[in-house]
Amino acid sequence: MADSHTNQIFIPEWLLENKAATQIKHHRHSAGFLKKTLKQLAFVFENDFYCDKYARAEGFLQRIDARVKLLTLLFFMLFCAFTTNVFVIILLATTAIVYAKLSSLSLPVFIRRIWLYIPLLIFIISLPAATSFFIKGTPLFYIYKDVYISGNGLLAALKLFLRTGVSLSFGYLLIITTRWQRLMNALTSLHIPKIFVMIISMAYRYIFLLSLAAEDMMNARLLRTVGKLSTRENRLFFGHGIAFLFLKSSSLSDEIYDAMCCRGYTGETINNERFKLTGIDILFIINNIIVILILFLGELLF
Question: What is the rounded distance in angstroms from the CA atom of residue 82 to the CA atom of residue 96?
Answer without folding.
Answer: 17
